[in-house]
Every structure is written in structure tokens, then in C-alpha cells.
């Protein structure tokens, strides 16, 4: 077993053990903290498909995080009010259906956004993905039907068959299971033929084209899959906070998702998990000491970018290895 | 809708465009010469606004404040160039995005630390208070006209600087070939610091000028930064001409969209609904324009030859 | 006469005032090595770029296996069987030599949109890829990252990739560049046998290799083909001697 595998297993166990312990000691706050880590990690696992494997620096993934959140919020609101969505289609409070809707919506919106954005490269790609996210952000702010700037409350957490989702530990376990499934998906993708083509597109797109694989097609699918996973995380995040607002769509959110990946280790299976743990921990620990914790977060981030380029996993498990 | 109102809105669009040009010119210059994407450019804009407001409040003179904004932003720019930015030129864009994102956090919280969370206010200088009559009746704020004038002067100045001076020659050489300029014996590190400080000063100037129209607060740089990105992407990154064109386009399209779209939709649907949809569409309009332009010209309208 | 595999007619490409490709016509026939020589800046790489699809010509036609290449991008041309090696090695640097070749194998199979099965335990990819590495003599370095291979080994790897694609014609852009005399000799021998598998359009500065291998040679000067012929014809062509070989000799 490689050192990275051992570190990964330890991280997975740690993330599970903390809320179980907190539950035993009657400290629900720490369960919520762990749930937040799991969901942010999930969102970053999604982005890691595009960014880590494909080298696509999407600075607009908050769009999908927020869309997933709004899918949950809107469906739940309609179910709560008993008002059909449109054309007689009712809302729903069932998580599996909400997740499906979130994933499908994000995939469908990611395709045209990706198709336009992927015609560009480098800085243009970074900026055009940012611009698309801003477009959706401003739409959410100025469209009053679902709360506009004020956001939308979910009065009762949505339901999952056979589980009492209002219990913090149960909801954590749902999120944890989804995160593990997404990590499994990432692992399979990375090792597959598609993953080989995607990673080759990052390393050398000309080489990929010269063997007859069109980089655009590979990247577009990766972008859509990436958006779908991040969208699923958004739906879970909305249910965690029982609230969704345009801030989930903001460019700060897009930046944070990238930060999570870099803190943890770009392109690595557990990079997003390590990054989310570190990020939430910094936020919690510094936030307890000073109101100005973001100042120090900035300093830490700057230090990581300038001096510790492999992120946390780079420190714990050494350099990335390829087969 | 009167002609005067239309002219007023057009001038507002032009004024917004000029602001964006001051931001975008620095961004695009820095990218063109050093290949760096700088998210913290919005922080330099904020620093200019705060410096102007604080110094104007202390001295009672807007003009001293304005000078202070240039100095403060240029100094902040030079300091971060020497301490941080310089290490990023050879990194990929992802590292540049992250490091400058970190700078935003540091500058925003740092400013809150120094000035508190309440906004500062900056008065329009007495020399520029009042209004000018518009053709077709109506009046227009003199101060906004002055901003447009500043934009014209800066655009001309940049043109002369780049096409006529030794510094401009070096900038142009630096854009095309870093090694050649080093071989010519130009101290490239100093050149980069100067270019970065120049871009920072322009952003600071923009922040100070806008500070008199809005409140001066933390976070004010971010919407300006994102619009400036839209501008340089439309214009073609690295092109000053593209930045000017893109800035005017974005300024006018955004302002006129907000003004005209609800009115246009009202011809087709009830006024309340038209106002709603119109406002939502107008807020997305420049991003739609940008996506359309990039769909046909993936490297912008005035892309430098690559 | 046999139908040429690759047929270029009246190709033109200008960059500003520079005529990089000036009315070039040439063809590549089955079983031959057609060498393209010329001084630096003669437009050899520009021509290769147009054939492989990274540059679009201003006018003229390129036909490959009877099909017009206009409008087809690099990937589409590669799928039709146009295999190319690059002047400056172009590999997936983080991948091992084996994975670089496996990528070509999966591309040839058209199976790049399979999402789940792990490639490293997939014999339908690893075995053909390993066989290609053996052919070029690189099997012992199969698990070394491309970035860590020597210059000559990267050239060999590029050729293994082109072989794995089952190409119907090869475009090799200076495969000998940076190789020692031993390596050049071995590669010359290898290419000599390869011509029967698929014809080769060979851009090369190593004149010993060119004269040893080429069935025909075209000389490109300032974007124009000033002569095409057998090795002897080219050696004795007065214009070639004046414009090119004369300088070198």
C-alpha cells in the first residue's frame, strides 16, 4: 500500500470518527462542522475532475454549486406550499429526486457553458467561466420569484427514505456516503480510458489530437461531469443550512472551491477532502480568535501557493505518482 | 422618453466605460507585459478610494486626496510586486489566480481593520459641483463629464507613452520578447515594477474618482474588477486599444440595457412584468454580449497576434 | 502509375509578407521514403503543420488516401491514418512511456469514452503498447515518465506512438535531431524497414541518413520546391548545389 493510500484511509476515518465521537459526547456543533467539510469536499471533488485531471481552471464552479442549491430550495418550497412548479409538475421534498434534478440541471447548463468556454484557453477560459457564473449570480439577485437577493429558506430539511434527516448525525452520514461515492467515481474516472485522455489533454493537448482524440470533446464531458458533482454538493449544502442565497453563486465561492483543492493537493484523490478539512479548521480556529480571520487565511494561502505547492497531501504523502 | 434622457443615459454609459477603462488598461498592460492575471487589481482600486477619502477628510481638499490615491495605489502596487507578484511570473495562471485571490482577502480584511466596517464618504470637489445643460433640455452633472474628460486624457497619455517614449518602447519590446529586452540591457525587474505600479495608479485613480459618486467601502473593488475582466476579454487581453473599445462597449451596453430593456419589453407585456424581466435580463446583458463575442472571436476583438 | 498516398497540390501559406509555403506540390507514394530537405527557415515545419492540420493553408489542396483534407482538424487526420512525430518532442510528460503508447492504442480502438474500467490492468491496451515499445527498443524503459526519458528515447517513443496508431503514412519531423551517431544509425536502420509498412515523409537535417534512406528527395528553399528527384539527381542538380548543398559542402 502506498503512503498516499494510507493517508487517504486515515483522512476518511478521521472525517467519520469526529462526528461519531461528537455525537456520543452530545456536541452537535462538531457534527455540523464535519458535515460542512464533507459537502465542501464533495463540491471540490467535482471541480477536481475538471481542474485536477483536465487542467481546466474553472473560476465559475459556484454557478453549479448554487444551481444545485436552488434546485433543492425551489423544489422544497413548492412542495411545502403545495403549488406546482409549472405545467402541473409538483415540487418535492425527497432528496433522491432533488439530487437527480440538481445533477441533470447542472449537466444541461454546463454543456453550453462548456461548449463556449472551451473554445478558449488559458486566461480567457478562467475569465469566461467567471463571467458565466456572474451572469447566473446576477440573474438570481434580480429575479424576485425565489427570494432575489435575500435568498430562499427551506423550512424543513428534505427527506431521505428510511432516514431521519433532521438528526445531525444521520444527515452527516448521508453526506459522507455521497462524498465516498463521488471519490469512488473520481478514482474510476482517473484510471479509465477517458481519464487517460483527459489527463493527456492537460499535459499536452497537441499530443492528444495527434493520436486522433479531439481534446474538446474530452474536456467538454469532463466539464459537465465536474459540474454535476459540484451541483449535487450544492443541493446538500442548501439542505444543511436550510437556506440558499445568491452567495452560493458568488465568485468568492468559486475562488474558495479552487482554494480547497490547492490547500489539499491538486489532482489527487483526497486533495479536496484534506483541503476542506484544513479550510474549515482554519475558519473555525482563527474565527474563534479573531473576527479578521480572513486576513490570516489570505496569508496562509499565499504561503501555500508560494512555498508549499503540493498542498497538504504533498506534505503528507509526497509527490504525485503516475502509472 | 425624451432625447435629453437618452443623452443623459448615454453619457452615464460613457462615464462607466471610462472608469472601466482606467481599471482595464492596467490589467491588460500587466497581462500583456508580464503575462500575469491579477485579481488583486480591484484591491488597488479600493486602496485609491480609501486613500482619497481619508486624505480629503483630513486635509479638506479633494485634490490632495486625489494625489494621495495615486501615490497610495502605486506604492501598494510596487510593494506587492516586489514581495509577491514577482514570484508569480513564471508560474501557471492557477497559481496567479490563487495568490492574488489571497491578496484580496488580505487587503479587504486589512482595510476593515484600519478603517472599520462603515463606509467613508467623499464629496465632489466644489470646482466640479453643478451641472451643464444638455441639448434638448435637461442637465448633466459636471463631475461625471469631468470623469469622461479624465478618461480621454489618460487614453491619450497612454497612447503617447507607449508609442513615443523610451518606457513605452521597452513595454512594447517586453510584450513581444522578454529575452530580447533583457539582452538589450534593460533592467527587466525594474521595468516590471514600474509597469505594475503604473497599472495600480490607474486603478487607484479610478477608485478615487468613483469614490465621490458612491460610498467608499470594502468590497467596492470586486464588481469593478469583474467588469474590467469582461472588458479585457472582449477587447483581447494585452491590447490597450481593445481595453478602450471594450470598456466603452460594456459601459454603454450595461447602462443602456438597464434603461431601455424594461421599456422595450413593456411594448410586449404588462409593465410590472416587463420591469422585472427587463431588469433581470439587463443585469446579465454584458455577460451575454461577452459570451457571444467569444463564441465567434475566442481571443477577443483586438487580440494581439500569437 | 500507382496512386499516391499523400498528394499536395499548389499549396500556399503566407505570414504577413513572408511566403512560408509558395506553390508547393509533392506526393508520397506507397512504400517510399520521401525526404524533405532545405536550409533553416525554408518552410519545412510550416508545410508539415499544414499537412497534419495544425495550420490552415491559404490555398491549394492536400489529399490523403484520395480524400481532401480541407476542413479536417489534426485529430480527424490522425484518425484517418496520418501519423506524425514532432520536431520538438510532444508527449504527455507525466505519463510513463507505456501510458503514452496506450493512449495511441485506445485512440486507434476508438474507445476513449469508456469511464470505468482501469486501464493499467487492461491487457487489450497494455499488450499492444508494450509490443510497440519492444519494436522501437524501448521496452526496458516502459515505466519511466516521458519527462525523464533521454532526448533520443523520446524520439523513439514518438515513433512507437505513430506505429501504435496503425498509421497509413508517417510524417516524421527531424527524428534524428539530438541523437548520437549510434542512435542515428539504429534509427536509420529501423526507418529503412518501416517504409514497407507505410510510406514516410521525412524532414531531416542529417544528410547521411537522408542519402541512405530516401527514395526521392524534395528540396525546399524560401517556401518553394526547387527540385524533386532521386538521391543522384539531387546531388547533381546545379540549382540545388548552388542554393543549398553548395553552402553546406
CATH topology description of chain A = ABC transporter involved in vitamin B12 uptake, BtuC
Distance N to C terminus of chain C: 36 Å
Backbone structural class of chain C: alpha/beta
- CATH topology title of the largest domain in chain C: Rossmann fold
Cα-based radius of gyration of chain A, to the nearest Å: 19 Å
Mean pLDDT of chain C: 88
Q: What's the number of helices of chain A?
A: 13
Order of helices and strands of chain C: EEEHEEHEHHHEHEHEEHH
Class from helix and strand fractions of chain A = mainly alpha
Largest contact between chains: A-B, 40 and 42 residues
Number of domains of chain A: 1
Q: Helix count of chain C, per DSSP?
A: 9
CATH homologous superfamily heading of the largest domain in chain C: P-loop containing nucleotide triphosphate hydrolases
In round numbers, the mean pLDDT of chain A is 91
The structural domain count of chain C equals 2
Can you tell me the residue ranges of chain A where pLDDT is under 50 for at least 5 consecutive residues? none
Q: Main sheet of chain C, how many strands, which sense, barrel?
A: 6 strands, mixed
* CATH A-level architecture of the largest domain in chain C: 3-Layer(aba) Sandwich
Strand order of the largest sheet of chain A: 1-2
- How would a textbook summarize the main sheet of chain A? 2 strands, antiparallel
Keywords (chain B): Amino-acid transport, Cell membrane, Membrane, Transmembrane, Transmembrane helix, Transport
Membrane topology (chain B): Multi-pass membrane protein
InterPro entries (chain B): ABC_transp_permease, BCAA_transport_permease
Pfam families (chain B): BPD_transp_2
